C-alpha cells in the first residue's frame, strides 16, 4: 500500500511543502507543489547545481512566478517539468519523486525516478 504523505489541501499552489522519503535505507528530503490543474508533483529537495544545497529550507522554496528558485545562485526550475530554465545548471532536471492523489490525499508512488539528467554531479 502506498504511503500517505499529506492532505491535498495542504500542498501549496504558490510554493512548496517539505517532506521526507525513504531511499536506499536513508531518509531524503523532497518537496511537493500543486499545479494549476490540481495535479501534484514532487521533487527531491536538492538543487542540480550543487546537490548539497536544499531548495526548501523548511519554509517553502522561493518562487519566481511558477518556477522554483534556488537561494544560492538563483537557478530557476520549472515546477511542472523540474527542468532548470536559468542559472548555472540550465538544462538539468530535478529528480522526480513519484506521488499520486487519491481521496483528497497525496501518496508516495513506488516507482523509480524518471528524471535527473545530471544525477549527483556537482557543477563548478
Ligand atoms: S546551488 Fe543552486 S544555483 Fe547554485
From TrEMBL:
Keyword Isomerase carried by entry: no
InterPro entries (UniProt xref): Rieske_2Fe-2S, Rieske_2Fe-2S_sf
Entry keyword Metal-binding: yes
One GO molecular-function entry: 2 iron, 2 sulfur cluster binding
Signal peptide: none
PANTHER family the record matches: PTHR40261, RIESKE DOMAIN-CONTAINING PROTEIN
Name the record gives this protein: Rieske 2Fe-2S domain-containing protein
Amino acid at each position: 500500500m502506498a504511503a500517505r504523505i499529506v492532505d491535498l489541501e495542504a500542498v501549496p499552489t504558490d510554493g512548496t511543502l517539505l517532506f521526507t522519503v525513504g531511499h536506499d535505507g536513508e531518509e531524503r528530503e523532497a518537496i511537493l507543489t500543486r499545479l494549476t490543474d490540481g495535479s501534484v508533483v514532487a521533487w527531491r529537495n536538492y538543487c542540480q547545481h550543487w546537490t548539497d544545497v536544499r531548495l526548501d529550507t523548511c519554509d517553502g522554496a522561493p518562487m519566481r512566478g511558477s518556477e522554483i528558485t534556488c537561494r544560492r545562485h538563483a537557478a530557476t526550475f520549472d515546477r511542472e517539468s523540474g527542468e532548470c530554465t536559468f542559472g548555472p545548471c540550465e538544462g538539468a532536471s530535478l529528480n522526480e519523486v513519484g506521488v499520486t492523489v487519491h481521496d483528497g490525499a497525496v501518496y508516495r508512488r513506488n516507482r523509480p525516478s524518471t528524471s535527473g539528467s545530471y544525477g549527483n554531479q556537482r557543477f563548478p
